[in-house]
Structure formats: structure tokens, C-alpha cells
Amino acid sequence: MFNDRAIRLKQKFARGEPSPGIWMRLASATAAEVIAQAGFDWVALDTEHTPFNPETLQHILMGFQGSDTVPLVRVPWNDHVMIKQALDMGWDGVIVPQVNTAEEARRAVAACRYAPLGNRGFGPIRAGAYGPGRAEYVRHANDSVFCVIQVENVPSLEQEAEEIVRVPGIDGIWVGPCDMSSSINCFLQTDHPRIWNAVRKLFALAKEAGIPTSEGTGGASRLGCVLDMGCQWVLLGEDITFLIDSSAAVLQAYREGLTKIQQEKTAS
Fold it and tell me: In the chain, N or C terminus with fewer CB closer than 10 Å?
């Protein structure tokens, strides 16, 4: 069946289990292939803040061919054309930024679902295996495609949290603490109590509604906090940070090793 891996991930969430994944920001099909083999449950490619043209977007997606890792793409905006194009390429789902009201959530969901559940335009070219698999893809698309919304405005969230979680068809709710801080005039003060009071209320409502959540910052060091909040989308970091950290670690190991060798030679 098309999108078996997406269905399996949805089933994992339905069982209440946490699921590890990362951000990908490198415009590299080779990096995508490497990451696809690493064993993450999901990978989210960020096209909101990093430059990707459609051809590169499709080439990166090809790196996940045959992998059990679910590839998601954060589209630049809550725009039905952008969402349609990503899904027609064959991405297993989208993350939609700045979805701060129930009406905006309904619009995002509708763009991800074929009629009668939505208004997604028909044309799954690569998603339908260029024709031979189109009918099967369409049969399962409404159930398998992920529609994840990202809530990033505190005043709106305080007013509309209950309405947002009642929108049918939401497969995940993430928050964006940085943009949330901007919405209450405390830019980048992401530990502000008002932010996390609103987030915890949203997450409690989402849990009751059976919607898995993510607190949006990530890192293995925050795992306890993430799980305490009931998050199931467990963000462990991003490819660029991994590259920076591993490069720094190797260089540091070299310097320490060189110093030790020189000290031993001096001592002898």
C-alpha cells in the first residue's frame, strides 16, 4: 500500500508512543540519503527559512526512497498551492507554519485532503508513481498524509486553543517558541511564563483530542521536559547542528590527542 511508513507512524502516535526525528536544512540529496538510513522515525525539511527550489525539493525527497523514515516538509506558508505541490511530489506530509486560529487550521487541513474531506487539487504526479499507482495513492491519501500545524502566536492561542484542537484532520500540533515570544513583545525570551502557560494548556487539550504535539525546540538534553509535557513528536536536533558539533568534537579530540603526544615526548 502507498505510504505504509506514514500509516505506521500514525499508528505509533495512536498508541501514545514518542517518536524521534530531526530538522533537515541542507539542500543536499546526498545528505538526505545519509539521514534516511540513520533510523529516525521522521525527518522534517524546512523550506520556510531555508532556500529550496522545487527541483531540489524533489531530489531531496528521492533520498528517502525505500526508507522507513517519514519525510515531511515545512512549507513556507499556509498556502494551498505550496501544500498541493509538496504532496504531489510525494512528501508524506506537511508542517504548516503560523496556523494560529481554527479557521487557519481548517484551511491547512482542507489543502491536504481530497474531497469530500477537503479541497486538495488533483494531480499526484510523482506521488502516484507517475501514473500506474495513482488510483491506489488517491484511495489512501486522505488517511496517510500528515497535516501538522505550527501554532506561533500567544494571544491567538489563548483565545482559540479549544477551537483549534476540535478541527478534524490535524495530525500534529507543534509550537514555535521564538515567534511566540515575538507575539507578546518579548522577542527570543522563549522561557517567558506566558508562552509556556499557553503551550501547556494547548498540549493538554491536544492530548484529550488524541493529537500528538511537539514543543518545537528539540535536543536530547530536553528529553525529560519534552516527555513531561506529553509530546510525542520528539525533535532531537538538526542536520546543520550535528555537522557543526561532530566537526568540533573531532577537532577537539585531535587537539587533545596532539597535546598528549607532545607531553609524552617531552616527558621521555
Answer: C
Give Rg (Cα) of the chain. 20
Q: What is the pLDDT of residues 247-261, one digit of tens each?
A: 999 999 999 999 999
What is the distance between the alpha carbons of residues 236 and 220, in angstroms, rounded to a whole number?
5
End-to-end CA distance of the chain: 68
List, in order, residues 6 or more apart from 180 with CB less than 8 Å away.
151, 152, 153, 154, 157, 190, 195, 198, 199
Query: Please, how many CA atoms are within 13 Å of residue 147, restricted to the half-sphere of its CB?
Result: 28
CATH class of 4-267: alpha beta
- How far from 16 is each of 11, 21, 71, 154, 176, CA to CA, in Å? 9, 16, 20, 26, 22
Indicate the average pLDDT of the chain.
Answer: 96
Angle, helices 102-112/80-89, rounded to nearest 10 degrees:
30
CA distances from 133 to 114, 125, 137, 259 (A): 16, 10, 6, 60
Convert the pLDDT of each residue in 12-60 to its tens digit: 999 999 999 999 999 999 999 999 999 999 999 999 999 899 999 999 9
Amino acid letter for position 255 = R
What the block records as the C-alpha cell of 30 is 546526498
Whether the Cβ atoms of residue 215 and residue 226 lie closer than 8 Å to each other? yes
Catalytic residue among 49, 59, 80, 192: 49
pTM of the complete model beyond 0.70:
yes
Number of H-type helices and E-type strands within the chain: 11, 8
The yes-or-no answer on residue 49 being catalytic is: yes
Q: How far apart are CA 244 and CA 34, in angstroms?
A: 16
Sorted by where each begins, the domain ranges of the chain are 4-267
